[in-house]
Design brief:
- By secondary structure, this protein is an all-alpha fold.
- Helix content is 69%, strand content 0%.
- It has 4 helices and no strands.
- Helix 1 (3-13) crosses helix 3 (29-42) and helix 1 packs across helix 4 (48-58).
- The longest helix is centred in the middle third of the chain and has 14 residues, at 29-42.
- The mean pLDDT is 95.
Length: 64
């Protein structure tokens, strides 16, 4: 994952909505949606929850 994709994934793991992620990272919601689509593809995940679980298992994010 790119640095920006990791940023999005970490915020996703903390339970933020696309709108909240966009606000935090100064991005449009559309850009956040694109990043999430790429994250899902790269992690071979079907949805946001599976992407976060996969990222947790791989040590890409933690729940602090």
């Amino acid at each position: 994952l790119t640095d920006r994709e990791e940023d999005v994934l970490k915020l996703l793991a903390s339970g933020l909505s696309n709108k909240d992620i966009a606000t935090r990272l100064s991005l449009s919601e559309g850009t956040v949606k694109n990043h999430i689509s790429v994250i899902l593809a790269k992690l071979h995940a079907n949805d946001r929850t599976q992407a976060v679980l996969t990222a947790l298992k791989r040590g890409l994010v933690d729940l602090e």
